[in-house]
Write a structure and sequence with these properties.
- The complex is a heterodimer.
- By secondary structure, chain A is α/β, with parallel strands linked by helices.
- Chain A contains 15 helices and 17 strands.
- In chain A, helix 2 packs parallel to helix 3 and helix 12 packs parallel to helix 13.
- Chain A starts with a strand and ends in a 5-residue tail after the last strand.
- In chain B, helix 2 packs parallel to helix 3.
- In chain B, strand 4, helix 4 and strand 5 form a beta-alpha-beta unit.
- Chain B has a five-stranded parallel beta sheet with strand order 2-1-3-4-5, sandwiched between helices.
- The chains are: A alpha/beta, B alpha/beta.
């Protein structure tokens, strides 16, 4: 025993007190003595939990040992009292035991007997304390579990997303108000019910069954859109497994998409409105300028025609900007890419290049194609991809002087169809290169001054390519040329 | 005798501009400022060709065109659609396809280039 035990000896005989002190001091005990009952009880009253064991003589003048015993039991029932019975009568010992004494030791006793009895009492006291401590600890961790449970419950209840937990047998064990709202459930009525009884939606039931299949498969989560009443609900269902990989149940998280769809629709309406409201007046302005320029409104001077053609160029720029902006917002809204189909990118590229050949010839630029045979198909939006390559090829031609060359090369690269549009044009400086995909960014220099553009083209191109899960990169050297590389993930060739 | 062309567009500025171009080429021009009025005039005035705007508030050009082409009496009148989309990216192609689905005979982008418009109209009338 490492700790020092505090022991109180109450005996009217000084010999006994000294003897106990001497014997117990060797047992790592701190011994306090009292010469009579009153003195002993006072010591206990001062600090009822200050002693582990009390050695108490039953027969003392004044307050008797039995009285001290009773009073002590009231002060601290846990205090262990060993009575010393002077005239070895079993009766008084039994009576003391009845009144709550822990043990007794008859006088006279040997040092070993005393040590044995005291050590036993101290040991018991220690075990009692240890038990108490463990009990308190268990209570605390139970309380922690309860707190944690209530915390999780609060979080789940407050969530805007719906949560639906089913057990191994497919019974609903946990859900939240959001799920109730989305699925039209009454929370109190559906708990413990099998899922298929509470929810009619077959897709959801199938998903829960599917993730609960015993064999371990690659598909960990099933995500799907459910049409429930007027709402569109996106449901993600996953299995819950124990550490040993045993299926415990399934969790479904529900997201209400109705509001997002409504937002998309409003955005589309807005785009259509802006498209008409902005384009019409600009196009009317240009229309009238056209008429005057063609002499349909009377004779014009050279100066007037020059000014009008400047005005026309600016209004055309504005019209292009509006178109690009609308295209951009359509792509941002995901509207423009709703017509994805299985297609051959080289068909799109060929068409674009053929359309540009006239312009290339007129500008004195050699436009070459090098397309690897039997390229795999791609899942894409034909019109938008046409826009991408039209933009890249026409950009390449814009920034390439007469006598230069524009090359379009296509081949496979891993899981991608790679298209490179390279020119021998003026190139792009390092500083500009980092920003050319930014919205409204245009390279400003002596050489680009005469070139009209909106600054949106490449950012639209990037958005479209990314909406196809592809990537676009650029390499360039000033004065040498620029090469854009578009990677589009291909489908397995059929 | 001068050929008669009906212009249908809700934008009076555009009607005036197109009229000016066509009158300068000696065509007789009549105007309607909406889809419903356009459809009426097409039936009462029996023009040789119709220049038809797509985006109109009361009845759009697709619907007007469809109704005309569905009627055997007016099916033969050539319809030239005016599309409000400049040839950016390939939205034009989409609009054009929509136009073709409604059996329009040709289309021209707004703003109209005078020579282009006249060329298309001459081609349609000489068919």
């Amino acid at each position: 025993m490492n700790e020092v035990s505090k022991i109180l000896v109450i005996d009217d005989e000084a010999v006994m007190r000294d003897g106990c002190c001497r014997i117990l001091a060797r047992e790592q005990c701190e011994v306090v003595t009292a010469a009579n009952g009153e003195e002993g009880l006072a010591a206990i009253q001062r600090d009822p939990h200050g002693f582990e064991v009390v050695l108490l003589d039953l027969k003392m003048p004044g307050m008797s040992g039995m009285e001290v015993l009773e009073a002590t039991r009231e002060l601290n029932p846990a205090l262990l009292i060993v009575v010393i019975t002077g005239y070895a009568t079993v009766d008084s010992a039994v009576e003391a035991m009845k009144k709550g004494a822990y043990d007794f030791i008859p006088k006279p006793f040997t040092p070993d007997q005393l040590r044995l009895v005291v050590n036993r009492a101290v040991e018991k006291r220690r075990l009692e304390l240890e038990t108490q401590r463990l009990k308190a600890e268990a209570a605390r961790s139970l309380r922690d579990v309860a707190t944690e449970k209530s915390k999780v419950k609060t979080i789940i209840t407050c969530m805007a997303d719906g949560v639906l937990v089913t057990d191994r047998e497919g019974r609903i064990v946990l859900t939240n108000p959001a799920a109730g709202r989305m699925l039209g459930l009454r929370l109190d009525a559906c708990l413990e019910k099998p899922l298929h009884e509470a929810i009619a939606d077959e897709k959801l039931n199938e998903a829960v069954q599917e993730v609960m299949q015993p064999e371990d498969r690659d598909v960990a989560t099933i995500s799907q859109d459910l049409q429930i009443g007027d709402s569109l609900i996106r449901a993600h269902t996953a299995a819950v497994k124990s550490e040993e990989g045993e299926q415990l149940g399934a969790v479904t998280v529900l997201e209400d998409m109705t509001y997002l769809l409504e937002l998309d629709r409003m955005r589309a309406d807005f785009i259509a409105m802006v498209s008409h409201e902005l384009r019409s007046p600009i196009s009317a302005v240009e229309q009238n300028i056209n008429l005057i320029l063609k002499g349909l409104a009377g004779q014009t001077t050279e100066k007037q025609r020059h000014l009008l053609s400047r005005a026309k160029e600016r209004s055309r720029g504005l019209l292009d900007l509006v178109s690009d902006l609308l295209e951009m917002s359509k792509i941002d809204a995901g509207i423009a890419l709703q017509r994805k189909e299985r297609l051959q990118v080289e068909e799109v590229v060929n068409k674009v290049v053929e359309l540009m050949e006239g312009e290339a010839q007129a500008k004195g630029i050699a436009l070459h194609r090098e397309i690897a045979p039997s390229l795999a198909p791609v899942l894409g939006d034909r019109d938008n991809l046409e826009g991408v390559f039209t933009n890249l090829v026409s950009n390449a031609m814009k920034y390439t002087p007469t006598g230069g060359e524009v090359r379009v090369e296509m081949e496979h690269e891993g899981d991608y169809v790679k298209t490179v549009v390279a020119d021998t044009g003026i190139g792009i400086s390092k500083e500009d290169l980092a920003r050319i995909f930014d919205k409204f960014y245009r390279v400003k220099s002596e050489k680009t001054r005469g070139i009209v553009g909106t600054g949106l083209g490449l950012s639209i191109v990037k958005s479209i390519v990314e909406a196809h899960f592809g990537s676009i990169t650029v390499e360039s050297e000033e004065g040498k040329g620029t090469a854009f590389t578009v990677l589009l993930p291909h489908l397995p060739a059929s | 005798m001068a050929k008669k062309i009906l212009i249908v567009d809700d934008d009076p500025d555009l009607v005036e501009a197109v009229s000016t171009i066509l009158e300068s080429k000696g065509y007789e021009v009549s105007a309607a400022y909406g889809g419903i009025e356009g459809l009426e005039k097409a039936k009462t005035e029996n023009p040789d060709l119709i220049v038809l705007d797509i985006m109109m508030p009361d009845k759009d050009g697709y619907v007007v065109c469809k109704e005309l082409k569905a009627d055997p009496k007016y099916r033969s009148i050539p319809v030239l659609l005016l599309t409000a989309v400049v040839s950016k990216l390939s939205t034009t192609r989409y609009t054009q396809q929509m136009g073709m689905e409604t059996e329009a005979d040709d289309y021209v982008d707004k703003p109209v280039e005078p020579e282009e418009l006249v060329r298309r109209i001459e081609a349609l009338l000489s068919r």
